[in-house]
Amino acid sequence: MIVTDRKCASLNMEMFCKGGYISWETLVYITAEPDIKDHINSLTIVLMQETERFNKLLIIIKTSLEQLKKAIKGFVVMSEELENVYNAFLNNHVPELWARNAYPSLKSLASWVKDLIMRCCFIDNWINNGPPKSFWLSGFFFPQGFLTGTLQNFARKYNQPIDHLSFKFILLPYSREEAMEQLRTVKKGETIPMDQNLDVPDEGVLVHGLYMDGFAWDWDHMTVGDQLKGQMQANLPVMHMDPRLDYEPDLSLYPAPLNKTAARAGTLSTTGHSTNFVVTVHLPSSNTQDYWIAKGEALLCQISD
């Protein structure tokens, strides 16, 4: 049997995963091949960083649960931190220890754990099967890094200054509401049924998993529309984020702010990025910008529960 470099990398990945670390060579082999200029896909770096963040969070969760179990049995002292974890469980809240090392979220503990499992499935599928046709933007620990990596790929390919690049947002007539549920049942080497109708664009990326807070999507006219009665948040269709040089969006488009949570507020981190705001998405609309701004419409990466 011939053992390829990719198979060796896969075996190497399984060994490193047990220690909470994935080697750079493994990610290069599994996720991308160098381009004609011998540049590694920038999204490979994004995947490596996301894997490290999730591994760090999972280690903290595992360690705290093991220590809490020992404290309940009386083998170790019940510290104030462990007591706070225990009390958070009783109230269905995410423990402060976990939240401090995790991504922004307003979910209750039960929903938060389910969301974390789906995020890990998303990263695991990316490692095992390569880049997906459509990326679950809400599943990233740091989505701004993914957007920067996409622009960097374009800048390297065409020798363009990255600070002059921005996205043109093209909405596609596809919905992926059940994509993550299907992803949990997909085996290694398989693809979900929803991906069969999607074509990977030559430039940019396809993303999904965003919610419309306070308004909805008009599928007949492929524009934003008023919120339906009884509907809190509607799903945004699959979106093509196409890098453009010195792009000036049309004034008829509504500049919808994309936030990680419904808090609508955040602080600047040490990287210069907001802890909540991601990017401004320009959406097609039959109404003026003032109409939607007055109603406070925005996009969300995740709903509260």
What can you tell me about this protein's structure?
The chain is an alpha+beta fold. The protein has helices spanning 5-18, 24-31, 42-73, 80-90, 96-100, 109-129, 143-158, 179-183, 289-295, and strands at 134-136, 165-171, 205-208, 211-213, 215-218, 223-226, 233-235, 239-245, 254-259, 277-283, 298-300. The strands form 3 sheets. A 5-stranded mixed β-sheet has the order 7-4-11-9-10. A 4-stranded mixed β-sheet has the order 1-3-8-2. Strands 5-6 form a two-stranded antiparallel ribbon. Strand 5 and strand 6 (223-226) form a beta hairpin. The radius of gyration is 21 Å and the shape is globular. It starts with a helix and ends in a 5-residue tail after the last strand. The model is unreliable at 1-20 (pLDDT under 50).
Key traits:
305 residues; alpha+beta; 5-stranded mixed sheet; 4-stranded mixed sheet
| Rg, alpha carbons | 21 Å
User: Can you give the helix content as a percent range?
Assistant: 25-40%
End-to-end distance, in Å? 50 Å
Strand content: 15-25%
**How many strands appear in the DSSP assignment?**
11
Q: Secondary-structure element sequence?
A: HHHHHHEHEHEEEEEEEEHE
Catalogue the unreliable spans: 1-20
Q: What's the shape?
A: globular
Q: Based on helices, strands and strand pairing, what is the structural class? A: alpha+beta
Strand order of the largest sheet: 7-4-11-9-10
Write down the overall mean pLDDT.
Answer: 83
Tell me the major beta sheet: 5 strands, mixed
Q: Helix count, per DSSP? A: 9
Oligomer state of the chains in this structure? single chain
